[in-house]
Protein 1
Amino acid sequence: MTTNEMYERDGTGEPSAPGQRQHDDTWLTASAAPGRHWFLLSGTLQTLETLFTITRWGALAWTAQAVMDDRAGAHETWGLAAFAVASVLAVGAGCSAGTLAERGARAVATGLRQQLTGALLPTAGRISQTGPAEAAWAMVDLADDVADFHAQTVPLSYSAPLSMIAVLAVTAAVHWPAAIVLVLTTALLPLNMRLAGLFAQHGADRQAAATRYLNAVVLDSFRGIRTLRELGAVGRRGRTLTTAAERLNKATMSVLRRAFLSGMIMDVVITFSIAVNATYIGLSLLGYVQVPHAPHLTLFTGLLALLVCPMYFAPMRARASVFHVRERATVAAGAIQAIVQDTPAEVIRAPRPQPTEPVGVSLTAVRFRYGGADQDTLSADAEFAPGTWTAITGASGSGKSTLLSLIAGLRQPSAGQVRWQTSSVGQAPALGGCAWVGQQTVLLDATVRDNIRLGRPDAAERQIQQAVVAAGLSVVIEGLPEGLNTRLGEGGWGVSTGEARRIAIARAFLRGARLWLLDEPTAHLDADSEREVVEALRRATDGCTVIVATHSFPLAAAADAVFAIDDGLLHDARLVNAR
């Protein structure tokens, strides 16, 4: 699927179906579990912050009353001291609440990334069709979107009811007409919050689609920069990237405008309520208004009611401000679920290596079709005998790598069956049970020993030395400044392409697998390097079953059997040639 097709499919901005949205909301609530302990502590401290703040304003109002009544200086001193202590406690509780909420967010993000890692890595049993752009977006951005949402809303869900009840109780205690004004204006807020939610939902859907599209364009551009340069298409791709960035910018500004508008309406309602209370209290203190049966207003009670009035609306204001955060989190929940829940319920774990018994492979009526394709990409019926070398040939893009991934268990066939056979047992492909050497060797910024040991982290020194000999690396290691302890730069700086390929062979040898799958192992090598790599492979795979996808004629000619893929059909090339 192209990036344009992906945007056209996902960029409509249409809200999710109600049933799916309810499911996403349920999952979103459950995803807060890893940080719920921290969120509960944070909510408790937010409630304490409210109580300390009420105390602070009470001390200030009491001090003002003392000054107006010409009381002794001791009253003012005690009032100011109480104000200072309560202020310190309120600030401390607020800061601590924020710190605990951040810890909870980190716990949630870590939990989500662990789920995503387990779902995306083949060793977890997932037959992943998730593209790299979508996987990176989920790991980096979406996990943080969900975690930030919980950090802002879960503690608030604990503290908001208690804080509002505390403020309302204090207001009612000092002057109940002011509390009635607060209750009446509260009824106007849910409608505004609902409108804010609808606005935010539509905008968040479009923003998520634009983000996904931009991620795909950027990743495709980086991966194909060499091809784009050779075709002279860098400028055209730059315009595509600019268009994608503009789409995201427009979607983001739309979300911000909606958030600003809903926040403005919320502020109007809150300001109106505070203004009504302030006007009533002012006129009451001046003697112009007197509500029947209402307690007499003093400077202390009137000032305290005015000071705590904004605190009553603070939780609602905070909740309204995170409506757009919730919609982003809901979109993230749907995307993460699509990745995590696609993991097979029953996972076939790799068997323990059987060093003395090579593995045969049988393909029975195997068909594979990519999602959305009109026809099968690959059709195969074949047997690969244990302990033999089989070459798979065919044009670029014919399906050689797809075939190897089916044999390895990295993909599941659309139809048919792939089986691994030994003299004692037959089974479906077990992830991690075979050795894989591809045309792109991944070398870490670590020592040669550590790069080889990736194949088996607990390998002893003797086993590493055996892998070095089997891969023909002995001379190479002797020529390095510190031998096996020589540190390679990121991407394998310090060794040639052929030497890097032999390090990959040593790594695979260390696994002890009896089935080797080789994807163009001699690609981009000169004749001498190709010969050295083939010799290393022959040594390392002695007694193993080897299936190699290759364009190399010498490598194919040296195989025990040769199969070709033409128009998606796998057939025995030597039988065809004999005809």
Protein 2
Amino acid sequence: MSRTNSSVKKYRKKKKKRERSRMEILIAIAGKVVDCMVEPVKQWLCYSIHYNSNIESMKKQVEKLRDARDRVQHSVDAAIRNGEEIEGDVKNWLKEADGIIELVRKDSEGEEEEKRKCCNGTFLNLKLRHQLSQKAKKIVQDIDKALEIGKFDKVSYHPPQHGIVTTRCRDYVDSESRMSTVKRLMEALRDDNIHLIGVWGMAGVGKTTLVREVANQAKQENLFVEVPIVNVTETPDHKQIQIDIACVLGLQLDVESSVTGRAIRLRERLTKTKDKKMILVILDDICEYLDLEKIGIPSEGCKVLLTSRNRDVLVQAMSTEKDFGLEVLGEEEAWSLFEKMAGDCVNKDNMRSTATEVAKACAGLPLALVTVSKALKNKSLNEWKDALQLLRRPATRNLPRMQSPIYSSIELSYSHLESEEVKYFFLRCAQMHFSIYHQDLLKYCYGLGSFHGINTLEEARHRLDRLVGNLKDSCLLLDCPDHGSKEFHTHMHSVVRRVARLIASKDHNMITVREDDGLKERLDVDSLKSCKEFSISGGDFHELPNGVEYCPELRFLHVYGGDRPLQISDTFFEGMGKLQVLDFTEMQLPALPSSLGLLRNLQTLCLDQCVLGDIAIIGELKNLVILSLMNSNISQLPREIGLLTHLRLLDLSNCSKLEVIPPNVLSRLEALEELYMGNNFVQWEAEKLNNASLVELKHLSHLTTLEIDIRDASNLPKDFLFKKLERYVIFVGDVWDRSYKREVSKTLKLKLNESFQSEVGIKMLLKRTESLYLDELKGVKSAWKKYAMANFPAT
């Protein structure tokens, strides 16, 4: 029994314990339930209670956001005006800010609407108050976050300026010559072994247009990742060139840092590119040497394309590995460009012929073709005709709009010539005809003393060759297409010549009157009084313009008479005491004016292609150093010529009627350096009885140039030695074609008969001969024949 009671007690005790545990669990659960129910109610009541403060806080914060948004937008607007790109996170922030502001606006409008519906707008129901208050607090939190994010240091960046366009330049025309050059340029750009390329040509020939077309094609072919094109100014600024290149590449350079510091950064950018593709840097219009390393352009790792008006700048100074010369357009190519720029108006029946003449007057120069065609587009026929007259005549000081850019670009090339000497030489070339004969230049410039530090004609000839080369490299002189030998002739582009004559007239008192110039009528005494050089030719005149004889400052006078008699008074030269060079070409001069003898300072006298009578007065010109009678009809050389003991050059070439040269005239010209007697005098005598003898030439110890025609080899003296000869054209024998033309230096044509005695002298010349012609060698020793055949096997 006791065990039973004990078990019951234990059971009841455990049961109570379990009931207590369940109660505790129920109480705990109930507490949790109460907690879960109270907190939402509490929060719900909190939103409702703080409704006004949450709404007010939202309104204040949204005003702050609106102000911040406006500040950022102002910065964005300024950046866009500066051509900058806006950062992506700035764009996103503005979009987000606009969204928040718009949300607040809509919520405010919704609140006002609900107020009107509830209790006449006095109260909102508790549910709506809770919703609006809760939303307002969330918006405030979003605004706080947006305000923190919107504190931008900068809102934009400078985008890379690619420097090229993918559309073709409007001024470019697909001409055969240009397409060929573009093709060869593209081949050079693809060549991994070529890094520095040059394009040169005269001002206005289209270098910039061409390289931009090349850049366009390179872009289309995806040859380079970037192609910055920078125009190099007249006075190169390394800092500005660096900044211009960096701007295109999107590289930020510290403008306050040193040139070297910027160069290091630029060099790194030019050599570090994506996909191992190079950058092509185009530097347009280089006028002088440019230190690429100093700028930051490496010799490897990128490619460089340079343009210049001066070939020497590219080839010599910049050491380009490949260079391309750009010529003016041919007639068909020029018309194609002109027609493209001028439009359909040039093809109207009443316009075509005039438009064609205007295009021809531009002489194939692209800048002139584009400028003139644009200026005349859709203009009347009378305006076209007036423009044609302007283009054909020398420009005035007040240039028309269509001429100004053409003249300015060429004048810039002139201003960059290396010295005053070469500048004057350029202007002197412009006073001459289309074909510029180098021998004439030598006669003029030596007589004027234009070559500084020069004494002999040989030195002057070297200087002339250098100056001609300089102007060719600057594209201001061109090889003459009408002559096979570039050694003796060049020419100047007609547009360049017009600019040069304008400069010469304006700045150097050099007046040139040509046919259709219209200047002869406008010449006045005042302009002639200050005139230093005067040239007149081509017009139908029978006397010189009034006032020419009153030129106290005149140093140079050239009159091209056109094979007509010209009235010149005996006193004509009395007022020209400073005259140094006088050239009367293709004139009929029965007698020279007596006042010619007064020209004590005259250094050069040219009477080429003239019909001459008595010229004995020339003997009074004691200081004369150059006398040229080339192609004149003179039959007897006056004995008075022997008085010209300072004479250094005597040109009698092609004076086919010359039969008499008195004995002992040539031998007295001991200062003579150059003697030209090709295709003229052949009446050489052995004993100096009635005519000159070849023996007299032995006295000309300074002779460096000789052109002579010896019909009879027996007249050659035994000691016919000319050790100083640098150039010679010697014909011996009676079988040679006597039609006169300038031969290459050191030409010898021989037909030697049995009485030939000057073997030693001829052999000495033979050792230096460049061009040898042989007909017969009768009586010549076999050893000498073997020597000739061995050294000239093709003769």
